Amino acid sequence: MPFIDVRELSIYYEIHGAGPPLLHISGSGGDLRRTAPAQSSLNDDFQGLHYDQRGLGQTSAGEGQPTMADFADDAAALCATLGWSRCHVMGTSFGGMVAQHLAIRHPELIDKLVLNCTSPGGAQPSYPLHELQSLSPDERADVWMPVLDTRYVPGEEIPGLGSLTSYFRDGQTAEQPPEVAAGFARQLEARRLHDATEGLAGVASPTFVCAGRYDGIAPVSNSEAIVAAMPNAELEVFDGGHIFMLQDRRAMDRIREFLLD
Fold it and tell me: Contact 103/125 with Cβ under 8 angstroms?
């Protein structure tokens, strides 16, 4: 299996597809064993680099509590170790936060930047997911579903998700091994302190910011704040919640068009 030593970590990664290099940075609790990177529709046009972030999936945790800068530097070091000197970057949710810090700290790496369902932090943070961890699994799921998509009605399917609705609810009630829970807790702590607002004005890369109209985790106003702060950013709002990429078929097509233009 593809593991590589980067900084103090053993990082699990996968590369799929062919074309211009595209680094994918996943969201909270991301695990490549669950997210099926080999099936990404972008693999038809890009060579996609996917990886488990520190403390998640099959990547080691490292020592101590990581900062957002650590997550960004991990991504930059992974690219450098694999010989990627420049690439497109797409960050989703927490991955979008990491991508913002990556663009601020390592601007030479990024060609074009895509930020999905994310927030700049500071005065406009994403929903405080860390506060849900003290709830019982069922209580957590009851809170999670309406912020995942604000149209959610208990007992019904989320528009555009159909039977996948239960998959997202089950993800909140599943029992996690202690090491997985610990890695997730450290990620949420870094997320809690995320604030990229002061550095966004210096990010020159063309940036496509994508938001879900019914996202209660990263509301549209947070994406608007990112675009207002960045000199070369544009915003498009899609018909969905925090997982609009699965709900609105236009989303991946528009991302592809932006990156290939």
Answer: no
By C-alpha distance, which of 79, 88, 110, 57 is closest to 6?
79
- Tell me, what's the pLDDT at 176? 80
Distance CA 39, CA 41 (A): 6
Q: Per CATH, which fold does 3-260 belong to?
A: Rossmann fold (3.40.50)
Distance CA 170, CA 6 (A): 33
| Residue among 56, 96, 129, 134 nearest 226 (CA) | 96
Do the beta carbons of residue 242 and residue 126 sit within 8 Å?
A: no
Identity of the amino acid at 223: S
Please tell me the distance from the alpha carbon of residue 232 to that of residue 220, in angstroms, as a whole number.
Answer: 18
Low-confidence ranges of the chain (pLDDT < 70): 1
Say what the pLDDT of residue 171 is: 85
Q: What's the rounded Cα separation, in Å, for the pair 238 and 247?
A: 9
pLDDT score of 93: 98
